[in-house]
Design goal:
The chain is built from 17 helices and ten strands. It has about 475 residues and is an alpha/beta fold. The strands form two sheets. A seven-stranded mixed β-sheet has the order 2-3-4-1-5-6-7, with helices on both faces. The protein has a three-stranded antiparallel β-sheet with strand order 8-9-10, with no helix packed on it. A hairpin with a 5-residue loop joins strand 9 and strand 10 (about 405). Helix 11 runs antiparallel to helix 12, helix 12 runs parallel beside helix 15 (about 355-365) and helix 12 crosses helix 16. The radius of gyration is 24 Å and the shape is globular.
């Protein structure tokens, strides 16, 4: 029986090597990772992207679609039976139904396979005939992505960085009081540990609501079936010479268990297999929240890039060292909240926010890009008279059902006018006031062949996987 299991294991290993060797000569598979920080619109992005790849009339800047190279696109069963399927049909119905509404956001990992049937152009294409490319879209919470940076930090380093961040945050006031009344060297008391973990979780929830980006560990915000487990029952503590059996020693052990049993399996089973990646960021929301939130987003983006293995994929490198992320798109979402006259400023701000992260990826050989997009356009543009002068606005329906014309404030032409105060630790913008509104999706009447209206979703697709198609 043991021999049988051994033979079976060897056979499976040989099959895995065979699959790896033959994969380059079979249908091409692109694994596209989609993630984003809180309220960035991951679910809407995937839904609209798939809908617009199936009905391609609005994808004029996506060459494979506009040239007619894509003959058809269809959904297939996903290759991994252990991962939940992304509920595309439900989300599309929510966005395009008679009473459209925003679908529920991402709370765990899911996957969807879209197969594209292509007819290559030119003489060689005529000789080859049609081919199929599979786009495997992997959706996962941005909080999980930030967790990957914990792999390079022990408990002491993580505690030091976390406590330094929350030192000046109003949202952390109650948790700071808990820490002040805690002796890290005291013997472990489980009710005390649970109270500290609950206080830390409450701080993370408040920080995320206030617009801050780096809210690790991510499973504290999205615990799933880990809720209440010891692996989520720890918190940062000041440095101390804690003896065995102490609160600090046990928290360090649980933190290591979190990295080993939660973060590493995600990296190994899902993240390390991604070819192309899009990171969605709510830049406008961070600007509205103020300079501290903008600086926190900048640091979080640089931290995110440390988790990627950027570079170019070649057959031998992918066979022996694993996949590398070849292209990374940083997409500033909700561009429909701005008149198009300000889209260039939004893109420039996104590029400046991501400069440190982009330089690191570019140096490693990956291609990166920043774009201002709206996966689903919920507004229309207009010009009104305000204080005797023309003012560019967008119009839409608020979640309350009320119609509104909105101007969020004038973004600066020079991104440093925002980033410099953020780096210096300013509490508020000195010469401007930026507002945000939450618009509901607009009722749609789609013609045959049309996907949902968007802003630059076709350009995003062209950068992410247009080269392969």
């Amino acid at each position: 029986m043991v021999v049988g299991r051994l033979v079976e294991g060897i056979a499976q290993g040989v099959q895995g090597v065979t699959d790896t060797l033959t994969a380059p000569f079979s249908d091409k598979v692109i694994r596209l990772g989609v993630t984003g920080l809180s309220r960035s619109g991951k679910t809407v992005f995937i839904t609209s992207l798939v809908a617009n790849l199936m009905d391609r009339d609005r994808m004029v800047n996506f060459r494979a679609a506009s040239s007619g190279a894509i003959r058809t696109a269809y959904l297939q069963p996903q290759p991994d039976d252990t991962i939940p399927r992304f509920p595309f049909e439900d989300h599309l119905a929510a966005l395009t139904g008679a009473s459209p509404h925003w679908p529920e956001g991402t709370r765990s990992i899911s996957e969807l396979r879209l197969s594209l049937r292509l007819q290559p152009a030119g003489l060689l294409g005529g000789l080859q005939g049609p081919r199929t490319v599979h786009l495997d879209i992997v959706d996962y919470p941005g909080e999980w992505l930030l967790d990957l940076a914990l792999l390079d930090k022990d408990y002491a380093a993580w505690s030091k960085d976390t406590l330094a961040r929350l030192e000046t945050r109003q949202e952390a006031e109650a948790f700071r009081a808990q820490i002040a009344n805690t002796d890290p060297a005291a013997r472990l008391d489980e009710p005390k540990a649970q109270m500290l973990a609950a206080g830390f979780t409450a701080y993370l929830q408040a920080a995320r609501a206030a617009g801050f980006s780096d809210c690790t560990p991510g499973r504290f915000l999205l615990p799933g079936d880990l809720a209440g487990s010891p692996v989520l029952t720890f918190a940062p503590l000041p440095p101390s010479s804690a003896p065995r059996g102490s609160l600090a020693r046990e928290f360090a052990r649980r933190y290591d268990s979190y990295r080993r049993n939660v973060v590493k399996p995600f990296f190994r089973d899902h993240f390390a297999r991604i070819d192309r990646q899009v990171v969605l960021v709510d830049v406008l929301g961070a600007i509205h929240a103020g300079p501290p939130a903008v600086e926190d987003m900048r640091l979080a983006m640089a931290e995110i890039l440390s988790a990627f293995r950027p570079g170019r994929n070649a057959f031998l490198t992918s066979l022996f060292t694993g996949r590398r992320v070849e292209r990374i798109l940083f997409a500033a979402t909700k561009a429909d909240h701005l008149h198009h006259s300000q889209h260039a400023q939004l893109t420039a701000i996104a590029q400046a926010l991501l400069r440190d992260a982009k330089d690191r990826a570019d140096f490693a050989g990956a291609k990166t890009k920043a774009l201002a997009i709206a996966a689903l356009r919920a507004t229309t543009e207009d010009r009104v008279t305000h204080d005797g002068s023309p003012l560019d606005v967008v119009r839409g329906t608020l979640l309350t059902g009320k119609q509104a014309a909105f101007h969020p404030g004038t973004l600066p032409e020079d991104p440093s006018h925002l980033l410099d105060p953020a780096r210096r630790g300013s509490d508020a913008w000195l010469d401007a006031d930026y507002e945000v509104m939450t618009f509901a999706p607009a009722p749609l009447t789609l013609k045959p062949g049309e996907g949902p209206p968007h802003i630059r979703l076709d350009r995003a697709a062209e950068f992410l996987f247009g080269d392969i198609l």
